[in-house]
Each structure stands twice: as structure tokens, then as C-alpha cells.
Amino acid sequence: MAFDALPIPKGNRVAILTNAGGPGIIIADACESAGLEVVELAPETQAALRKVLAAEASVRNPVDMIASATPETYRIALGLVLDDDRVDAAIAAFVPPLGVRQQDVAESIVTASSEHREKPILAVLMGREGLPQGRAELNEAGLPAYIFPESAARALAAMHRYRCWLARPEGEFATFDVDRAQVRHIIEKARAAGEEHLAIQDAVALLSAYGVPTAGVRHATTADEAATAAVELGLPAVLKILSQDVVHKSDVGGVAVDLRSDDEVREAFARITDSVRAQLPDARIDGVLVQPYVKGGRETIVGVTTDPSFGPVLMFGLGGIYVEALRDVTFRVHPVSDVDAQEMVREIRGHSMLQGIRGEPPSDIGVIVETIQRISQLVGENPEILELDINPFVVFEEGAMAVDARVRIDLEDHGRTP
């Protein structure tokens, strides 16, 4: 009703008028909870209200005109607060006392609205049956009338959010220089082999082709191969068990970190494979993954899922174990602009951790924003990608690195084009 009948407010500053103190307090609380500001009226507005209201009335916001307020009082008081440059909108509440007809009050609200068409007025007519007579007059004049104070506050808050959305920068959709041919090769190879989930080496290569900073990764099937790969990638190293049957590698002893020599790598290879075989005897083990040991930084997650109605939906949040424990994540429908990506980073509850707290250095927000945009481009140009998780995406004071990645593709060809 509010959007259909009223002008969009220019700000979130609201004045409240009522003939009973209780509803005024309820509306004020509801407005503040909804992000609206119950603004202090200008001194001249308060002085003008004192001249027309009873001595017992309160001219502070919310304005309590007390039960003796007449329809004419409503009209004059509404006009005064709407003339105040500090006020962007008004909510007028009415509780029926003896001797005052709600229809007459409704007509006064309509008159005040017609004299101040640039500012919205919402009415709250409170009674056991919602005062249908007064609501009818208001609705006929194109003004929304609510039974409950919270409803009016929610409606006005929604209009304010809409105004903010209209004023929001549109943002830009970046197109990066990427290796599309490499990604097509990886996807087509997996589809030909019937592999719905890409091997981690292919997932990392896919990300790297789109400019996402990644940690090096090698596949090793023996202890000697693992030691050689660790030295070539650079010690210290990390070993992770490679098995489609193991979901959480660390839970079954399938991870070894901070390996500082080739001998430590060989020993760790035997240790983690034996541990997984002991706990999951039926699991197929395809060797280990060897990566450089990434120290420091803040673990985040960047991901994609496919919604049947909206298509690709991008996700960002705190990563590592925090994504399951805290679920501190935010989402945007594809495509994601630079403004969208910046908002995603700011929206999570752990944003202050990325900014740096208690003397910790801040994380490189710029590389997060760019990575989200690169992933947006990746899934837009390759609709076969149904799911993608980079967890953890470790962000440093300068730069970042995708340490682990999972990608699920659609094996069916639906004739889709980017």
C-alpha cells in the first residue's frame, strides 16, 4: 500500500504524531529497530506545536498531542512537522477517544498529505477492529492505513531501503584476460571421462586459468614422488590424502603440515596413508596431494552454487573450519559487479577480522573483491560449472592464495551458452 500510494522518502528521518503516549513509544521503537531515525524536531517546529497543542502535550518526537487532540489539531500538527527540514516522513497514529470521529481524523490526515505531497504520511488507526471507517477514507484518498504500529514502521523502512537501493552505484562488471581454452579443455576432459567432480589438480588449474592466485599442487603415488614434488614446490610442504571416499581429510589423519625436509615428507606419506586405511579400510586411496605450506593469513571461502530459479549464486565468508561452525557467509546472484563484491565482503559479521583487530594487520580486501569478480566471470562463461568451493582462500596483508578447491560440473549437454 505504501509503495502504491506514497512518494519515496528522501531519507530515514521520521516524525511521529499520536494522541496517546503508548502507541508513540511503540512506533518509535519499531522505527529504530527498522533502521529509521526518530529525529529531534527543530526548535522552531517545537515552538509552533506548543502554540496549538494542550499544555500537557509533548512536542518532542514522538509528538504526544494527548487525548484532547481534534481532527484540526492533527491537520495543523502534521503540517508543522512536515514543514520541518529535518523530517523526511511522518507516521500519524490515532486511538479513538470519546467525542472524536475517526473519519474526521482521517480526512485531516488526507488534507495534510495533499498539502505536502513530497513527503509520505502513513496512518495507524488503532482500535479493537482496526477502525475500518477511518481506514476507508484514507484508502479512498490513496493513503495507506495500518492497524498495527509495527506495520507502518516496516513499510516506511522498506521505502527507505528502496531509496537507498536506487541511489546505490550500479557498479561495473569486469572482464578479465583469461585462458578460456584451458578451462574448456579441463571441462571437456572431465565430461569425456564421466567425472562430475574435478580432480583437485584440475580444479586448481581451472582457477589459475582465470587469474585466481593458487598454491602449487602435485599428485604423488609414492613416498619418493611426494618428497621430490615437495622439494620442487618449495619446503615446508603439506601432504593431503587423495581419495574420493574421504570427505574430511583431517578427521581421519589424512593431512600432514609443515614438513621441512624430504625425509619428513616420506615419513608423513606413510603415516597418513596408514591412518586412512586403518579408519576407512574400504576407501580407495589414489595417493597424496603435495602443496607448499601456507602460513599466516586469514582463511576465507569463495564459492558458487546453482539455484534452479536464479542460476549461479556466489558466496563469500570466513573459511576453513569457521564456515561450518559460524556460517558467516553472504550471497549474490550472478553476475557480480565490483560494488556487489565489495558489499559481500562488508556484510559478513567477521568483516572486522579482515580489517585487522587488536594489532593484527588488515587483509587484502582488494584481492578478495577481484577474486569474487573473476569467479563470477568464470561461471558465467562456463555454465557447466554447477558448484565451486575455494576453501580455504587464504588472504594475506598483500595478496591471497587458493589452497584447496572443489568443482562439480554438469555432465549433461543442455545446449546452454554463456
General description of the model:
The protein is α/β, with parallel strands linked by helices and 418 residues long. It has helices spanning 2-5, 21-33, 43-52, 71-83, 102-115, 132-140, 149-167, 180-192, 200-209, 223-233, 262-279, 322-325, 338-347, 351-355, 365-381; strands at residues 13-18, 37-38, 63-64, 89-94, 121-125, 145-146, 218-220, 237-241, 255-259, 288-292, 298-307, 311-318, 329-333, 385-395, 400-402, 405-409. Strands 1, 2, 3, 4, 5 and 6 form a 6-stranded parallel sheet that branches. Strands 11, 12, 13, 14, 15 and 16 form a 6-stranded antiparallel sheet that branches. A 4-stranded antiparallel sheet has the order 7-10-8-9, covered by helices on one side. Strand 14 (385-395) and strand 15 form a beta hairpin. It is elongated, with a radius of gyration of 31 Å. The mean pLDDT is 91.
What shape does the CA trace take? elongated
Please give the alpha-carbon distance between the first and last residues. Answer: 40 Å
Mean pLDDT: 91
The largest pleated sheet is described as:
6 strands, parallel
**Poorly predicted tracts of residues:** none
Computed over alpha carbons, the radius of gyration is 31 Å
Helix content: 40-55%
Strand content: 15-25%
| DSSP, total strands | 16
